Amino acid sequence: MDLRPDIRTIDSPAMNHEPKTMTKWGIIGCGRISHRFMQGLEVVPGSRVVSVWSRRAETVNNFVKQYGGTACESVDELLLSDIDAVYIATLPDSHHLYSILALNAGKHVLCEKPAATNLGLLEGILGIAQAKGLLFMEGMKPPFFPLYRRLKEYLLTDPIGQVGYIRAGSSVADLSHDHPNFSHELVGGSLMQVGIYEAFLAIDWLGATKQVQTMGRFGETGIDMFSIFQTEHQNGYAQLYAGFDLHGKGDALICGTIGHITIHKNWWNPSKATISYLDGRVVEIDEPFTSGGLNYEIQHFCNLLRDRKTESPVISHEMSRQMIGMLDIARAQIGLKFKGE
After folding, report:
1. Spatial contact of 271 and 147, defined as CB atoms under 8 Å apart
2. For residues 25 and 38, is the Cβ–Cβ distance under 8 A?
3. DSSP assignment letter at 143
4. Strand order of the sheet with strand 85-88?
5. Rounded distance, CA 114 to CA 320, Å?
6. Residues 78-111: pLDDT tens digits?
7. Residue 203's closest CA among 89, 314, 303, 98?
8. Integer angstrom CA distances of residue 132 from 100, 128, 136
9. Contact 258, 160 (CB under 8 A)
10. Least packed by Cβ within 10 Å: which of 34, 65, 115, 200?
11. d(Cα 165, Cα 182) in Å, to the nearest integer?
């Protein structure tokens, strides 16, 4: 009797990139993530950068030399320019401010995660977006990657049963100590910078959060260097971790009644998953991503604009509420507060 598992490989899905109109972008912030954004934008048909602004003029000039567009001397100049949407790539302390400025200027907004420091600030952003009929989306990239989409699609016909448990996390121990993630003033810390991804994964597979239990320890700068949080959801439980001083694996485990999934590291930039079934079958899904991976999120946002949508069905306003709401509870339990809270 052959006891070897049944192993299959899933091919990559086709994508339709046919543009209908041009989306003109303004970019606020010229740090690391904005360069990755441009790497993605350059391969999204029907999109181009028009205006760029950052608090440091030298970074704006260098950015424009590399990618094009016009360097603006102020955020007001950027918002008055001929743009359709704003990508907010600043540090989390100013996401709320620039989102509101952009929305009040009549611009659609794609804002990096976390979209706001807490739920109260997020509600203010969403209220303005709704009142003005503008698209606002938090930049949570994993669900737009080909691997993640293909995995969800495959499970429709070959499910692992009811999902009831998630285990995921990452601890990155090689960051330079001058990295903004270590800054309390700039809303750093492992929960806000890493834990937001884990919150998404748990909510996406298990539903709304019912309760949270958190432990964390602080570093010299006043941010949480390592946090673990257990959560109960509508459909099960999650065990999650995030940190900056231990070397974590960065994969994710998703358990159902008749099988489990491993999204291999780094699960938030996913390219490979293994599905293991109770009957011994093993299915491997390989979906390499291109152009840094943000191109898929950008394409989704542009498609929403062209369809005149004001909310993403993937990273919905309620998903953003759920994610930051979970982190609000987790921070309160370990005593992590930021300016103005």
Report:
1. yes
2. no
3. G
4. 70-71, 47-53, 23-28, 85-88, 108-112, 136-139
5. 8
6. 999 999 999 999 999 999 999 999 999 999 999 9
7. 314
8. 11, 6, 11
9. yes
10. 65
11. 31
